């Protein structure tokens, strides 16, 4: 916030990765936004870092994101396909990424990633 004005936001919502009967719980990042006149000042970076750190501290296993392949890797995101994770939607491999927060789970977090059903509704 700047005074009483909201200058940016970042949203994480529940997400899952399914593989057969196995379901891993995590979060999906997005959308993220910063007021146009305040972009490129580190606000989005701060929001994402703080949110990701909070989720790590709370035991979140992973975060998925559909986003720009030149932006999200700075936070540790890699193409989800490296972990044998694919999106429920057809999208470019380099734009669908994952940040595995619990490295001990990296071998079991694989399968189809799904956001909340509301993200699939088009009106």
What order do the helices and strands come in, and which of them pair?
Layout: E1 8-19, E2 22-34, H1 43-57, E3 62-66, E4 78-79, E5 85-87, E6 96-100, E7 111-115
Parallel strand pairs: 2-3, 5-7
Antiparallel strand pairs: 1-2, 1-7, 3-6, 4-6
Can you put this structure into words, describing what you see?
There is one protein chain. By secondary structure, the protein is mainly beta. The chain has one domain (8-120): Gcn5-related N-acetyltransferase (GNAT) (Aminopeptidase). 12% of the residues lie in helices and 37% in strands. The protein has one helix and seven strands, in the order E-E-H-E-E-E-E-E. Strand 2 (22-34), helix 1 and strand 3 (62-66) form a beta-alpha-beta unit. The protein starts with 7 loop residues before the first strand and ends in an 8-residue tail after the last strand.
């Amino acid at each position: 916030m700047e005074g009483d004005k909201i200058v940016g936001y970042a949203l994480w919502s529940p997400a899952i990765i399914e593989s057969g009967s196995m379901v891993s719980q995590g979060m999906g990042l997005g959308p993220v936004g910063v007021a146009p006149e305040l972009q490129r000042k580190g606000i989005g970076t701060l929001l994402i870092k703080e949110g990701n750190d909070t989720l790590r501290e709370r035991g979140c296993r992973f975060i998925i994101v559909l986003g720009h392949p030149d932006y999200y890797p700075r936070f540790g995101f890699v193409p989800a396909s490296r972990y044998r994770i694919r999106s429920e939607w057809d999208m470019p491999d380099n734009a669908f990424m994952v940040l595995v927060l619990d490295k001990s789970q990296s071998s079991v977090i694989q399968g189809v990633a799904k956001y909340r059903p509301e993200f699939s509704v088009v009106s």
